[in-house]
Design brief:
Elements lengths: L11 H89 L4 H49 L2 H41 L10
């Protein structure tokens, strides 16, 4: 039953205890919000730093792998160079012979056949070197593509972790703000009840 006049209601002591409990709960929840969000923000900050460092590392890998690709292709070229030069002299001699045959059709046919045979042999001997070059180009293009992607994003795993921690931070902010709002409503209701039961004025605790 509410108090009348200057005489407070017997319920007032219970009202005050509830008010104090709700104020303490608000303080506890505010402290929890502060520590939780601080921890969440630290995780997001660490994630962002990790992504940034990963991008820098990937950029360094990209630069190093570009040099490695050029070195590999240069080595491929050098490996096939002796064979190429050997056959170049043979084919040049064949071409000169064909040219020197002039109108001698029989000799020209023989020299032309030799040129074609030598050229075929040349292509067969060069094939392994060319295959290695093509394989290295494909291999290194894939590596460079991966390096470039990681230098731009920082790596899918790290980015996924960053997004997850950002989502957690957002979720905690939303939930804990709602908790504090509920706490404040309880405190305001407590103040109203205390006034009703003759408790005088109480300021909202925040």
């Amino acid at each position: 039953m509410s108090g009348t006049g200057t005489e407070p209601s017997p319920q007032l002591a219970t009202d005050i205890a509830q008010y104090q409990a709700d104020v303490q709960q608000y303080k506890n929840d505010a402290a929890l919000m502060s520590s939780t969000l601080a921890e969440d923000r630290a995780k997001v900050s660490a994630d962002q730093k990790a992504v940034c460092e990963a991008k820098k590392a990937a950029k360094a890998d990209l630069d190093a792998d570009k040099k490695a690709m050029l070195a590999a292709l240069r080595a491929d070229g050098e490996a096939g160079s002796p064979t190429y030069l050997n056959w170049k002299s043979v084919l040049d001699a064949d071409k000169a012979a064909v040219k020197a045959d002039g109108d001698n059709k029989d000799q020209r046919a023989l020299d032309q056949a030799k040129l074609e045979s030598d050229y075929k042999a040349f292509r067969e001997e060069m094939a392994p070197f060319e295959a290695q070059t093509h394989a290295d180009i494909e291999k290194w293009n894939a590596i460079l593509a991966a390096d470039k992607k990681e230098s731009q994003t920082g790596g899918s795993d790290l980015v996924a972790q960053l997004k997850a921690d950002q989502a957690t931070l957002k979720e905690h902010e939303k939930y804990l703000k709602k908790v504090l709002c509920t706490d404040q409503k309880k405190i305001k209701a407590d103040i109203v009840q205390m006034k009703k039961d003759g408790g005088g004025d109480h300021k909202d605790q925040k």
